[in-house]
Amino acid sequence: MIEDTIAAIATPLGEGGIGIVRISGPEAIEVGQKIFKAKYNKEWYNGPGFRLIYGHVHDKETGEIVDEALLSIMRKPKSFTGEDVVEINCHGGMLPLKKTLELAVKNGARLAGPGEFSKRAFLNGKLDLAQAESIIDIIRSKTDTGLKISMGQLQGRLSAKVNEMQSELLGMLAQIEANIDFPEDDIEEASLKQICRRSEAMLQEVNKLIAGAENGRIYREGVRTVIIGRPNVGKSSLLNALLKENRAIVTDIPGTTRDIIEEFINIGGIPLKIVDTAGLRETEDVVEKIGVERSKELISRADLILFVLDAAEGVTADDYKIIKLLPKNNNIIVIVNKIDVENSKINARELKDKFNDTAVIEISALQGRGLEQLEQEIVKLVMGGQVSVDDQILITNMRHKQSLEKAKLHLVEVKNGIEAGVPGDLVSIDIKNAWEALGEITGSTVSEDLIDKIFEDFCIGK
Ligand code: GDP
Fold this sequence. Notes:
This protein has helices at residues 28-35, 94-106, 116-123, 129-140, 144-154, 157-181, 185-221, 235-245, 277-281, 292-299, 317-325, 348-354, 371-383, 398-419, 424-442, 448-456, and strands spanning 6-9, 16-24, 36-38, 51-58, 65-74, 85-92, 110-111, 223-228, 248-253, 260-267, 270-274, 304-310, 331-337, 359-362. The protein folds into three domains: 6-126, Probable tRNA modification gtpase trme, domain 1 (Gyrase A, domain 2), CATH 3.30.1360.120; 132-212 and 395-443, Four Helix Bundle (Hemerythrin (Met), subunit A) (Up-down Bundle); 221-383, P-loop containing nucleotide triphosphate hydrolases (Rossmann fold), CATH 3.40.50. Helix 7 (185-221) runs antiparallel to helix 14 (398-419). Strands 3-4-5-6-2-1-7 form a seven-stranded mixed sheet, covered by helices on one side. By secondary structure, it is an alpha/beta fold. It is flat and about 80 Å long. The longest helix is centred in the middle third of the chain and has 37 residues, at 185-221. Helix content is 47%, strand content 19%. A hairpin with a 2-residue loop joins strand 10 (260-267) and strand 11 (270-274). Guanosine-5'-diphosphate (GDP) binds next to helix 8.
């Protein structure tokens, strides 16, 4: 039973039109009543929920008016957390927000920890774990497609699938249970065979979900992409050309030790995270350093390699040095840049023969030619050509993938066990284990420690 009331600033710190202090818990309305003075609906705290009240945040003791604000009241259980919630829309500056929060704490609330609002929503049954986790993904989504996947998860698509598989497993358990009442061998045998088929079918579904997880990860985390090539082949020009056509998404991930700022380019719905952008943007005097040595280091960290050649200069000895570094089975696109020059020294067709299955795309970063083709090739390579996620449940979270892999192992045990003639009550144990592994995704079978750990990764105010 949760008994205390928590408060936090729920909007990013910095200057903005409005900022919100969120208060949730049994005394949320009382705290609001103490720190907020309504101009018109003076007895708002006795009124219904889902109303917006105009007034002022004030310190009752000193009489100081801290800010002019709007207060919204959401009564339990129809609120995000399932508790009474009061949100105060202040002006979006550090001081009004900080002072309003301090007043809330002085009047009965305590500071919320990271993810505590979402955790309460989970504990109160407003969301399951997969849904709660999707909130972070929605906030951090980098492309429309990524947002769509996370919204699907918030709306319970993944959870529904997991619940469906779990009840199928319960059905199998019930079937085995029933057999124990009819111990004739042939009945049990026929029944176990049926369970074997059911678990095989489920294995296929689980495998499909696991197989999609790599694409899911890409939508969530982005494709680590490097642009490599000799100095002056046009790497920065290519980056700039891509950026010009595709909005860059900059995300700011607050960490405990330092903030990481990441930049993504949206290519056909796929977020490309260009690694070492700073290196690309360095100026002439350090240009020698961005040759072969640098390429070696970058290649080792990439999901996708864009290898740039210069049509004006042809394939040089240095290019061959880089080619030697290229991994054999990686996502590589060879880009012949500067095809606008008069005497191109590269014959793309010959190059294609040399690179076998690797795509060779001709572009002019300067004139913006060939970029569309390049983008199509990137999508094809990274997603196997598939970017539509409309009718697919995509696993984006590695925690979910791990649970599916656990479930898979147990399902294989079920199948192998039955085939080896293991008795029903032992098969039941594996079925139960698979059921438990799946339940970790929605949180129906996870330990309190794990729940704490998951919500600690959330930010304060969420
Ligand atoms: P980086 O060292 O690989 O990053 O190369 P840059 O992008 O700095 O480009 C080197 C030079 O090549 C610059 O003078 C660019 O203007 C020029 N350049 C880049 N792309 C093209 C192109 O498509 N056509 C032509 N003609 N010149 C280009």
